Amino acid sequence: MVLRGLIAAALAGTGLAAAQAQTAKRSVVVGHSVRRRAIVAYERGDPAAPTVLVVGVIHGTEPAGLAVIRRLRHVPLPAGTHLWLVSAANPDGLAAGTRQNAHGVDLNRNWPTAWVHNGRPWDGYYSGPRPMSEPENRAMRTFILRVRPALTIWYHQPLDVVYGSDPHVAVLRRYARLTGLPYRRLVAPRGAATRWERARFPRGAHFVVEFPAGRISAATARRHATAVLALAKGLRVTPSP
Asked: What is the pTM of this model?
């Protein structure tokens, strides 16, 4: 332990400790799906910077965001940025090609804020038997409460729009401008993840990006990854206590 402390002090003296923190990478399993598939989060950047969370997939039939996550896992990061990247919050739906998880629940109608019972299993917007009934959402909630994002982006399809109605409209408009998508001031559905995040962390910007249907090009993935990093670099918002 003493040797480790001496090494850390020496690195700090040369500035290498800061450089290592900036380029640090790790992955953690934040929970498991109904079918016991791992939900994995990847951390990159400077943990001292405000946290940016990016989620590639919550509906299994909307996988376009995976291309952005893949790019963000490997591109150089601007100084003073901190990313947590979740490829799929619904790995069972992604594997099966279903919007819902393996219980037939739309995970983006199952969060507790403004939740209402809607539909039956495998209906398009089935909200589940109760708020947070699904293991995927419980895992993501615990993870989000731990990392406390100041900015969250959830990728969806196929509306081809950036949307949200929180008070941080300038952030959403900037993302839309950087990516070429239109911005719409729309209210998130009842039981949506972003609706819960806005209630829990009102000082942060938490919003949805909808790609068009189908696969996105490498250029589109690059443009969106660049937009994420641009927002992260200038982030000054901090989440509520």
From this structure: 0.88
